[in-house]
Specification:
The protein is an alpha+beta fold and about 120 residues long. It has a single domain, classed as Arc Repressor Mutant, subunit A (Orthogonal Bundle). The chain contains five helices and five strands. The protein has helices spanning about 25-35, 55-65, 65-80, 95, 115-120; strands spanning about 40, 45, 50-55, 85-90, 105-110. It has a three-stranded antiparallel β-sheet. Helix 2 packs across helix 3 (about 65-80). The relative contact order is 0.18.
Length: about 120
């Protein structure tokens, strides 16, 4: 299926009482919808357009999956180099953000490699 439909991200705030676990397609959709549309800072981590900050434990709880399944899913998306949903992962620690802090996992920065191609350029 080609093309796209604009979907307001506020739809993610709608109460979800659906059954877990969710499908891989739903997981991909949720990740993509959570990606930033423009630059932001979350938990002290700067995110560019098409990025989001996640934790494996958080996604596992949200999706009703095991942490192992979440890691495998993200690794699979990372291997999809030429596909529109290809991602890159970067482990973010407080020392990444502030070198004076002791290293402790803060999350994983996910970058959708083709976000601009899918969503179009950011209006000026």
């Amino acid at each position: 299926m080609k093309g796209y439909a604009p979907v307001p991200k506020i739809i993610l705030d709608y109460p979800d009482n659906s059954k877990k676990p969710i499908s891989k397609r739903e997981a991909l959709w949720l990740l993509f919808m959570k990606a930033t549309y423009d630059e932001q800072t979350i938990k002290g981590v700067k995110l560019r357009r098409g990025q989001l900050l996640i934790t494996i434990k958080g996604l596992a709880k949200e999706w009703g999956w095991s942490r192992h399944k979440v890691r495998d899913f993200l690794a699979d998306l990372e291997r999809k180099a030429g596909e529109p949903w290809a991602i890159e992962q970067e482990i973010i620690t407080p020392s990444t953000v502030d070198p004076l802090k002791k290293p402790r996992l803060s999350g994983i920065r996910i970058t959708f490699k083709y976000y601009d191609e899918i969503c179009g350029e950011l209006p000026k």
